[in-house]
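Follow-up to my post from last week.
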Amino acid sequence: MAAVQWRSRGRNYEAELQRCRPEAALVDFGDYHPLKSIMVTDTKTRRGARKGSTSSSSSSSSSAPPDPLSSMLDGTDPLSMFAAASATETPAMAHSASAGDLGRKKWEKEKEEEVVGPDFEPWSLKRGEILARFTTTEKLSINLFMGSDRGKAPSPGSSAVSEKVRTRLEELDDLEEGSQRELLNLSQQDYANRIEELNQSLKEAWASDQKVKALKIVIQCSKLLSDTSVIQFYPSKFVLITDILDTFGRLVYDRIWTMCSDPRPLPDSFTVDDVNDTAKETCLNWFFKIASIRELLPRLYVEAAILKCNRFLNKCGIQETLPRLTAMIRGIGDPLVAAYTRAYLCRVGMEVAPHLKDSLNRNFFDLLGAFRQISSESVQKQLVLQRVEPLLTEMMERCKKLGNNALLLNSVMRAFRPEFVAARATDFIGMIKDCDEAGFPKHLLFGSLGRSVACADPPESERLTILNEAWKVVTKVRSPQDYVNCAEIWVEFTCRHFSKREVNTILADIIKHMTPDRAFEDAYPQLQSVIRKILTYFHDFSVLFSMERFLPFLDMFQKDSVRVEVCRSIMEVFIRHQVEPTRDPVILNAMLHICKTMHDSVNALTLEDEKRLLALLIIGFIRMVCFGRDFEQQLSFCVEARATFCNLESVMVQLIHTVNQLAMETNRVMRGSHSRKTAAFVRACAAYSFITIPSLSSIFSRLSLYLLSGQVALANQCLSQADAFLKAAVSLLPEVPRSISVEGKLRGSESFLLDFINNFLATLLVVPDHPEHGVLYLVRGLLNMIQDYTWEDNSDAKVRVYVSTLPLLAAMSQETYLYSIPKVDSNETLYGGDPKFLLEINKLSETLIGQVLDHLKALGRDEQSTRRQGALAFSLFGVLLAHGDLRNNKLSQLAVNLWNLSHKHGYCETRVSVRTLEFIKHQAQQADMSHLSDTVQRLALQSRT
Amino acid sequence: MSVTLDIRLKRANKVYHEGEVVAGVILLVCKEALQHHGISLSMEGLVNLQLSSKSVGVFEAFYNSVKPIQLISSNIEVAKAGKIPGGKTEIPFEFPLNTKGNKVLYETYHGVFVNIQYTLRCDMKRPLLAKDLTRNCEFIVHCQPQKAKVVPTPVKFTITPDTLQNTRERSLLPKFLVRGHLDATNCVISQPLTGEVVVENSDVPIKSIELQLVRVETCGCAEGYARDATEIQNIQIAEGDVCHGLPIPIYMVFPRLFTCPTLETTNFKVEFEVNVVMVLHDDHLITENFPLKLCRI
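User reply:
Got it. Predicted complex:
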């Protein structure tokens, strides 16, 4: 068998292509449409069916043929069917109260929207904010005296029992309930958990009809609010406890509601007359009970919590209660507690009766009235005791001078709508100026003002004055921390309304303030925010970088992590907003600097993900650089970039691609024929790639880049460079490891390698032989490498490569090649079909076939590998059929043998075999292929038994 | 075999006036038919007087409680001995609330030494081996509205160390000035007590300001009479050192049952007072007393 004679089949690619081209089939655009008929019948039948099943009205009831998709979905879709069905059932199933509840809520919502302005900030938003903001690490304590509600009126007829005995009995009761306890040293989380427990036990008590216990829990909870021992946590505590109160209020309201919902639920806008006597009596009872709560604070809170229940009793109950409760709050001595009580009352008031805005004003004026209390001695002491930030105490100190309303002004600016403040910004500036210099620090006031004007636009004409006035004060602030806090706010205003000149000035000022004593080290968050704000408003990077203080500003970020983060945010904005490729030297320089900073942060400890991210950003930048026709400058930019970003491999890869692209672009511009100058340039490009590729660590990117660069070099007629690339690729092959890691998993590299080799072989067709080396130098080199490569045991890879080399060799022996590169002479022209060359090829083919056959034989020895043997034999058969000249008897005999071998063990797929036979018969009909019909005769199909 | 006996009044708030009819149903719920020896219903209004141990000796107080005064009493037989079918049975009843002779129906009042209470009591006699069933139900009587018009007369007050009586060492007292007013001392019982108090100044911080509602009950008997004042409730109106100069509202709802229109009879008296109590941080207790006259309109 060893002496196989190879003859390649002569091919006429043109003719084959012609034959293969299908006849253009005319599409009939008549009235027939495959979807149409289905669509129409479909909707008709379905509609009939649907009417019976659900009563919900369908939206597709128009007479025009509906959209096929929607008609398909409408009705047959199980989900919508289900939804429709349940929609009709719910009113019947659901508890009457819940339906009423829904309606009520809707009504209230509408009403609320009507009365409350659109800018009303709902409590739900504020709530989360408070919880997140006010936290503490200090230890807290809960003090609950459940059951010892001294507000309870003494029970009648207890006169016989002396006072002492009675208290003892009460104590006993308390112990029974196990509720008198003091919990100390709670962390904030424990505290919140405890309160949540209380909330739960409230619900449980309510559910088990222990209304008195529920009330007691609520009273105890609200009592906790009188304890201001850890001020930092107080707002959060307030939120937690008012949650409980809300729950309680809801429970009471819903209970009374259900009492009146017999026989039918109350309408949404019920009046007192709709409420039955029992419900009224229950409601009244609650109010009497609450009115007898001894302590002021719980009485206020609990009454506020059930404020809504007034609706059951009389028409104007809420209207009368709100002002009364407002006035009663004056009785709370601690200004903090009082203020929060007011907040709760206002909140509940807004929820229950949004139209009663009067009490809001009244509350506010009361708050103002009690304002001077803050300066009182005890509060001061308390604050000092609790080490609340010194700033706060300072604020208080200054508020002592009544008439100095800076603190108030501050609150006004922070709380009022930004539009309101912005419209009167000049007035505010005037007021701020009038404030006592020794008062509340002015920069805080300007900070608040800045926040407002940054959100809303002050009148056009005043803008510059505002900025000037504000900045005059800001720039005088001594403490760098205060300064930067304030400056940060005003940057936004400046960016919004002014040009780069003003922003630049501000940046310069910030630099001036922050540089002494390295003050910037403590202000990174603020400085970062400055950058962020600038980036939000300046998307034109040429403008951005032409601010001369921008880069010096960046230099203030001296801590590596912060620096990289800032660079990254700049890059992100750049990539998002830079649409046009740029060649602006200012941008390039600055960006290069920024990218270099990012790149330099990479070290051995950097995570893969982080690296990938940075590389992505830098690549984004590189892709944006374009010097137009100035190719050389582009190349030199790439050289510079390579030097700068040598640690990020994917950037290297991108650079090589860029350079290759550059070479091809040159080629395109020159329309394929290079001048001397451009030829030198593309060679330079090739050189660039050639020296860059070895620095990559991933072997497959090296291989594919070699191949790609080789192809590019070939396309640009740089033959020796192409040769070098391909040679380098070949000599790299032995280094390919047997397994590589793909996405963190080890995988065999074989399939990748086969892919690459096939790709490589296809390129080899057009590579002309080197004049100094022998015939088919590269092919032989490749085959040698393949032979020497340590393939995996039990793998047919090597033989597969051999099999796939055969088509290449066959293609090489044609008179005209399948493809060629313009202006490059391939072997077809070099050898011109020289018999010696053909002989060489045939010899090589024969050797390969011999190798394959040997391998097949070896496989035949082993029972287990017969399947592989069959497959391999079949693929060789295919190659012979397609590329071999089967007029040669030996070859056709070989083909028949292979066919038989592949079918010997029955692993061949019959369908494939049948189709192959059909193909051969089809081929045989052509003029020069008649010999195939003989062969076909000898190919037997395996019969299935 | 379980049976429950209940009295349900028609009015949810159980409040009746003289001359009205107390109507309701007796509700019987049992699983199976029930044998009984008759069901009767009685209505009774009583004034219970008790002498405090302070004014008389302990033993005397124990034995010598004054005989209750009956205001109204009537009795009807609801059902003769027989059987009640299983399930829910409702037997309606009506009692006219009329007094005999010149007796007056006082308003319901639950106090310490004086108790005015109206009850309905339903008894079901049952054959041997089964306990008789009893059910009590209190209903509330409000006296007839007062004819005369109540003209509120505001009462102003000022409290300083000098206005105080009863002080041991006036010189040790810190300086303070509290002004205020009650909108009226002749109050309508169904409306809250209102007013204002202003702390003008105080050397020592204030701990708390409270309203103490006090009942003064007087019982007369053969040996003389006993007069006792006890607290009904204590309502805090200010907590902590309140803002000086800012008026703080005085507001107190009169609790039901524990208050009634001021009452004066030959045998006993029920009167009310309110104390404005100010507790200073050094635990000084300053009290200003105002007698009230409650009425119902």
